[in-house]
Each structure stands twice: as C-alpha cells, then as structure tokens.
C-alpha cells in the first residue's frame, strides 16, 4: 500500500534530511590547552629524574661501593661485583611484572593516582637508604633500592600518555621527548654526582660521610616531588587538547585486558617491540657496565673512576640533545618510520665507532660515547611515538609500557651476558662487538614494519568517510519510509 504524503509533510521530511546531513558532517572545533600542563610536565620530569638517578648511582662507582660495603656483601670478588650490578638490574626485573598492575591502575584511576604511587615508592626507597650508611648494612641499601625499582613501573611508560592527554597534537612528540629527557637528566646526574661526591680513597669513614650526604639530598628531593604531585596533578584536562585525543577517548574501549590483547596481536607493533627492546636493551647494558668497561682500558690512569662517571654523563647529555632533536624532527616531518630507522642505523654506527676506538685514549672515549648517547638515547622518544602512531587509538601508556617491558627483558639478558664476558671471560672487546651485532638485528627488524600512521590519519580527517557513510545511510532510510 502506498501512502500519499502532503506537501507540508514532504517539506518537513526534506528539512529533517538536511538537518541529519548537516549534523553528521565534520565540524570545525577549537581545542584548548591549559597552563597547568607545564607544571605537571615539570613535576613529572623531576620525579623521573630522581628515579633515573637512583638507578645508576651505585654501579657507576661500583669499585668504591664494593670496598665500602665489603663486610656485608656476599662471597668472593665476582659475587660482590654482581651484587652491586643488581642494584641496576633490579629496575629491569621488577618492571616486567609490575607494569601490568601499574597500567591497570592508570586505566582505572588515571594519571594522578598512578604517578603519585610511583613518586611515593621512590620517596620511601630513598628514605630507607638514609639508614644504610654503615659497612655492614648492605641489606638495607638493597632493600631501599628494590623499593625505588618498583616505583619506576608507575612512571616509565607515562611520557607519551601525558603528552597526548595534556598537549596539542603539533607538540606531542617534542613533549614526549622532554618527558623522557627528565629521566635522562637523572641518569646523567647519577653518572656525574656520585663520582664527584664519593671519593675513591682508602678512608672508609670519609666514603660513609659522603654517602650520607648523597642519600639525604636525594630523599629530600623525592619528598618535595611527591608532595608537589599530590597538589598539582589532575587525571586529565577538562576538555581534550586535540581532535585525535577526543576521538581516542570516544572510540577506545576502556578495557585493559582487551587493549593488551589487541596490542599483542598487532604484528607491526610486535616487530617494534623486538626492535625497540634490542636498542634500549643495549643502552641499559652499556650504562650498567660502563664502570668496568672503562676501568678495563684505563684503570692505571689517574682519576679513572671519576672519568667513568664523566663519560657516562657525556653519553646522557648527548642523548638529551638527541631526544629533543628527534622529537622536533618527528613533529615537523611526521616521517616516523624513516626517522626511526635512521636513528637506529646511526646508533649502530656510533657503537662501532666506540668499540673500535675506545682503547686509543680516554678523551677519544669521551667523544665517541657522546655520539653513542646522542643516537641511542635519542631513539627512546622516537620509538615511543612510533609505537603510539601504529597502535592508535589504544592507550598510549599501555603501548609504551609494553615497549619498556621488552626493553627490560632484553636489557636484563644483554647485561647478564655482557657481565659474564667481562668478569668471567675477560673479553671486553667481544662484549662490545656483541652489542653492535644486536643493533644490526634490530635495524633489520625495523625495516620490516609496514604499518600506516593511524593517529595522523585520525588527526587529519581519516574518519570523514565513515561519518559521510552514516549520514547517507540515515537519509536513505528516511526516503524509504516516505516511499513506503
């Protein structure tokens, strides 16, 4: 049966059709960013700075720590060195299981609760170490270090999430680099300050006094950072800072386990997991064992222990500039895969340069390790942002945390194998060649990634087709009713 439609009814239907099309068409919207974002970024950088500092503060003066805590360290000389090495490795071991509850906490309760938990644990660990200044109290030192290691799980994967949540789309890569930069500054200071403050002298009491100063200063900064975070941090801004972030909030399924499942079946992301883990694992290994590597070549020179800290600082300072340059280039070019591969290739070449010239002179090592740091540390934010691009609209913190899990696993394995080559086989050169081979493998894997840049597509209107299709479908259904 066909129903006759009056002229008034026809006019109303046509008006409704136009309204539907108009409402479903893409609209221009102005997105707002808030001044609070700078305070949040600054406090977060200080928090990760103290975390990075405590990660490396013992291994860079490993020979001094072994001598000071000798009474309470286990076994022979090799076992004592291994115990100190584990102050760094503990960060890798604890991160792997604790990342999952940490990211669940972020998914459920947001940025403030998650970061505050990390800042609180970091503060508690630093305070515990204040009670360990005695030659027979190594177990207290290590307990405090383990608590600080647990704290890292709640902050290490945050940078891309913080950048996307609080900053505009044209600055997320730079902000991610700055957030990573905080951790790198902490590592640089961790290389430098202990070697300057704690002298390599026979006087054990003087070493203890300097360690006390170190512990109290770090604990004070951690406490101030935790209090500031409680006051200033917010889970997210009142309104999204960009179109991509707004779409991610609307379309991303808020289910932590489902997000993990989707990420772990994304073949391009799995390739990035491996390549990122290999590169960052090499960085962790050479940072942890920089003292014995350097001492192997220059132990007989004056101030060898202090110079080991200097070379580590130069590596991180180079990396800070590398991180900022990498973030800036990504924001301007959006060529994520190209930039990632180029940085990877240059990391390999710089490691080859270091390996082949480190024996020539200590000042040559200063220059080559700065170059290594520029590219290898500069890779960290680049890899983070590439991971966000190929997994959008998934939670940025979860994807970056999985990248960090891969880095910790490869870092742990690489460090243990390099430690075996250095302390048991006395083959320092072979251990450095091994690191070069690992970087070759990671670079080849990076070339295999073929994923589209999903976040860029969303930011520049990749969903228009879907919106227009929906509009056409609604209009078609309305016309069908009229003709029935």
From TrEMBL:
<feature type="transmembrane region" description="Helical">
    <location>
        <begin position="137"/>
        <end position="162"/>
    </location>
</feature>
<feature type="transmembrane region" description="Helical">
    <location>
        <begin position="213"/>
        <end position="233"/>
    </location>
</feature>
<dbReference type="GO" id="GO:0097037">
    <property type="term" value="P:heme export"/>
</dbReference>
<keyword id="KW-0812">Transmembrane</keyword>
<dbReference type="GO" id="GO:0015232">
    <property type="term" value="F:heme transmembrane transporter activity"/>
</dbReference>
<dbReference type="InterPro" id="IPR020846">
    <property type="entry name" value="MFS_dom"/>
</dbReference>
<feature type="transmembrane region" description="Helical">
    <location>
        <begin position="363"/>
        <end position="382"/>
    </location>
</feature>
<dbReference type="GO" id="GO:0016020">
    <property type="term" value="C:membrane"/>
</dbReference>
<feature type="transmembrane region" description="Helical">
    <location>
        <begin position="429"/>
        <end position="449"/>
    </location>
</feature>
<feature type="transmembrane region" description="Helical">
    <location>
        <begin position="174"/>
        <end position="193"/>
    </location>
</feature>
<keyword id="KW-1133">Transmembrane helix</keyword>
<dbReference type="Pfam" id="PF07690">
    <property type="entry name" value="MFS_1"/>
</dbReference>
<feature type="transmembrane region" description="Helical">
    <location>
        <begin position="113"/>
        <end position="131"/>
    </location>
</feature>
<feature type="transmembrane region" description="Helical">
    <location>
        <begin position="339"/>
        <end position="357"/>
    </location>
</feature>
<feature type="transmembrane region" description="Helical">
    <location>
        <begin position="38"/>
        <end position="65"/>
    </location>
</feature>
<feature type="transmembrane region" description="Helical">
    <location>
        <begin position="268"/>
        <end position="287"/>
    </location>
</feature>
<feature type="domain" description="Major facilitator superfamily (MFS) profile">
    <location>
        <begin position="43"/>
        <end position="454"/>
    </location>
</feature>
<keyword id="KW-0472">Membrane</keyword>
<feature type="transmembrane region" description="Helical">
    <location>
        <begin position="307"/>
        <end position="330"/>
    </location>
</feature>
<dbReference type="InterPro" id="IPR036259">
    <property type="entry name" value="MFS_trans_sf"/>
</dbReference>
<dbReference type="InterPro" id="IPR049680">
    <property type="entry name" value="FLVCR1-2_SLC49-like"/>
</dbReference>
<dbReference type="GO" id="GO:0020037">
    <property type="term" value="F:heme binding"/>
</dbReference>
<dbReference type="InterPro" id="IPR011701">
    <property type="entry name" value="MFS"/>
</dbReference>
<protein>
    <recommendedName>
        <fullName>Major facilitator superfamily (MFS) profile domain-containing protein</fullName>
    </recommendedName>
</protein>
<feature type="transmembrane region" description="Helical">
    <location>
        <begin position="85"/>
        <end position="106"/>
    </location>
</feature>
């Amino acid at each position: 049966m066909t129903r006759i439609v009056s002229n008034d009814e026809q006019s109303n239907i046509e008006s409704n059709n136009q309204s539907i099309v108009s409402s479903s068409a893409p609209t221009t919207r102005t997105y707002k960013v808030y001044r609070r974002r700078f305070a949040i970024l600054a406090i977060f950088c200080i928090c990760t700075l103290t975390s990075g500092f405590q990660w490396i503060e013992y291994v860079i003066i490993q020979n001094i720590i072994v001598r000071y805590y000798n009474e309470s360290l286990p076994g022979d000389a090799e076992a004592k060195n291994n115990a100190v090495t584990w102050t760094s490795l503990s960060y890798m071991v604890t991160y792997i299981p604790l990342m999952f509850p940490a990211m669940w906490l972020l998914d459920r309760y947001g940025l403030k609760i998650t970061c505050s938990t990390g800042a609180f644990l970091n503060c508690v660990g630093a305070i515990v170490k204040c009670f360990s200044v005695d030659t027979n109290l190594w177990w207290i030192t290590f307990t405090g270090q383990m608590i600080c290691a647990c704290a890292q799980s709640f902050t290490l994967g945050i940078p891309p999430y913080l950048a996307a949540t609080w900053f505009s789309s044209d600055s997320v890569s730079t902000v991610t680099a700055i957030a990573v930069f905080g951790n790198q500054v902490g590592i640089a200071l961790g290389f430098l300050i202990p070697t300057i403050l704690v002298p390599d002298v026979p006087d054990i009491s003087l070493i203890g006094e300097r360690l006390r100063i170190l512990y109290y200063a770090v604990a004070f900064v951690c406490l101030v950072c935790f209090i500031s975070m409680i006051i200033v941090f917010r889970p997210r801004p009142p309104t999204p800072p960009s179109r991509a972030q707004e779409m991610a909030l609307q379309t991303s399924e808020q289910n932590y386990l489902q997000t993990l499942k989707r990420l772990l079946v994304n073949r391009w992301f799995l390739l990035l997991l491996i390549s990122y883990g290999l590169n960052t694992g090499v960085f962790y290994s050479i940072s942890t064992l920089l003292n014995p590597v350097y001492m192997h070549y220059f132990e007989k020179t004056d101030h060898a222990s202090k110079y080991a800290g200097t070379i580590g600082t130069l590596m991180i300072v180079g990396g800070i500039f590398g991180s900022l340059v990498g973030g800036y280039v990504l924001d301007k070019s959006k060529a994520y895969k190209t930039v990632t591969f180029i940085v990877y290739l240059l990391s390999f070449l710089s490691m080859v340069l270091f390996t082949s010239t480190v024996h020539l002179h200590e000042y040559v090592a200063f220059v080559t390790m700065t170059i290594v740091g520029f590219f290898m540390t500069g890779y960290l934010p680049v890899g983070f942002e590439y991971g966000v691009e190929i997994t959008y609209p998934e939670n940025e913190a979860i994807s970056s945390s999985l990248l960090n899990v891969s880095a910790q696993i490869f870092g742990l394995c690489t460090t243990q194998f390099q430690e075996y080559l250095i302390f048991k086989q006395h083959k320092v050169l072979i251990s450095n060649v091994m690191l070069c081979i690992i970087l070759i493998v990671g670079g080849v894997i990076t070339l295999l990634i073929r994923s589209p840049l999903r976040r860029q597509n969303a930011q520049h209107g990749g969903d228009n087709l879907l919106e227009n299709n929906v509009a056409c479908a609604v209009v078609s259904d309305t016309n069908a009713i009229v003709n029935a």
